[in-house]
Design a protein that fits this description.
Length: about 400
């Protein structure tokens, strides 16, 4: 048996717009009304069924859960905050605590309030002011008392947000710009998000000095071939994709959240097993990106790792093989303290809509019936024993 460290956190993750339903005041909902993207609609109705879903998480022996707060619910208009929605998230935190589940709260997971999007979102030079004001308000109102979270994630996948929205144009704002203008916008967004985190970090720590604050970084495993050019290219991409942003916030993060999905091996002709989205399954890649984080000397939580697998024929093996390499990284002195599978529920997957099925729990989007997949019970065995069979 490969035993994980005592106190290791086992959980799963969700994000508000992808599961809650009924969110109509953000940029993705507005784009859906204009016919530009698939509407999320009721999604999984998690907003109303969160306690039922947390009962499922508890039944699967999970002791941690990552979820996000929807900015457009909290601040529907610039400078106006909604106490009713704050109270809802208080109840979410209370429900998790009652079940012995440690909350990890993400303050921003891609969606923007319409008023902020109309200002240019994170292209606006005042974006750090608006974002940090929102973060401070949430932490002041949710970060006190026995149910208060200890862990705050300010930003989810800043590089993905900038890549998909401002270079590829596949996500909002869904605008194709030509080089070098697209690059200018791209770098401005990344820099503004980094500044937004840094200011928010200071504000969160002033409200709750004992809070643990980080981001969720989406790091890609780049592996070079023997070709000298490919070695240089891989080295550059590792720095640019995986470390440039982390370096900007290096002194203002108490932990690093790692999201791992992709790898790129240059000149590699091997055929890999694929997910339903056609993504390569390459478990060793999570070890490689974890080892890259050793330079920061910070605790690490795997905040996302998952597979689209509607038939549930690959998920159990996927989880076990990735956790094998997580444990190898721990044995090699990487301070990994938790693992969150993406996702607890099937959900709305951005440009791919409701097609991909990532959930440990299958959701019937017509009836909202939940059905625990067999792979979830395999993950439960790991959670129960805090160990993995070698």
């Amino acid at each position: 048996m490969m035993k994980f460290p005592e106190g290791f956190l086992w959980g799963s993750a969700t994000s508000a717009y992808q599961v809650e339903g009924g969110i109509e005041n953000n940029d993705w909902a507005e784009a859906a009304r204009q016919g530009k993207v698939t509407p999320a609609g009721r999604a999984c109705d998690h907003y109303n069924r969160c306690e039922e879903d947390f009962d499922i998480a508890k039944s699967l022996s999970q002791n941690a859960h990552r979820f996000s707060i929807e900015w457009s619910r909290i601040e529907p208009e610039e400078g106006r905050f909604d106490e009713i929605e704050i109270e809802h998230y208080r109840k979410v935190l209370k429900a998790l605590r009652e079940r012995g589940i440690e909350p990890f709260v993400t303050l921003w997971h891609f969606t923007l309030p319409i008023w902020f999007a109309k200002m240019g979102g994170f292209e606006n030079k005042k974006a750090p002011f608006y974002f940090s004001r929102y973060c401070e308000y949430v932490v002041k109102n949710l970060g006190q008392g026995s149910d208060a979270p200890r862990f705050w994630i300010t930003i989810n996948e800043p590089m993905v947000f900038a890549n998909m929205g401002y270079l590829k144009g596949n996500w909002l704002p869904l605008e194709k710009w030509y080089y070098p203008l697209s690059l200018f916008r791209y770098f401005r967004v990344i820099d503004n998000i980094a500044t937004s985190h840094n200011i928010s970090y200071q504000k969160i720590k002033s409200v709750g000095p004992d809070s643990s604050v980080g981001i969720a970084a989406h790091n890609i495993n780049f592996e070079p071939s023997v070709n000298s050019f490919n070695r240089l290219l891989a080295k550059f991409l590792i720095w640019f994709q995986n470390h440039r942003f982390l370096r900007k916030i290096e002194d203002r993060q108490d932990f690093i959240g790692l999201n791992y999905y992709f790898h790129k091996k240059f000149s590699d002709k091997k055929r890999y097993e694929k997910s339903d989205l056609g993504w390569d399954i390459y478990p060793k890649g999570i070890y490689n990106v974890l080892m890259e984080l050793k330079r920061y000397h910070k605790p690490v939580y795997v905040t996302e790792n998952g597979i689209a697998d509607a038939k549930d024929t690959k998920r159990a093996k996927f989880i076990k093989e990735h956790l094998y390499w997580v444990k190898r990284a721990i044995d090699d002195k990487i301070d990994v303290r938790g693992y969150f599978y993406w996702s607890l529920l099937d959900n709305f997957e951005w440009a791919d809509g409701f097609g991909p099925r990532f959930g440990l729990v299958e959701v019937d989007y017509e009836t909202m019936e939940r059905k625990i997949r067999p792979s979830a019970y395999e993950y439960k065995k790991i959670c129960d024993t805090n160990s993995l069979e070698d």
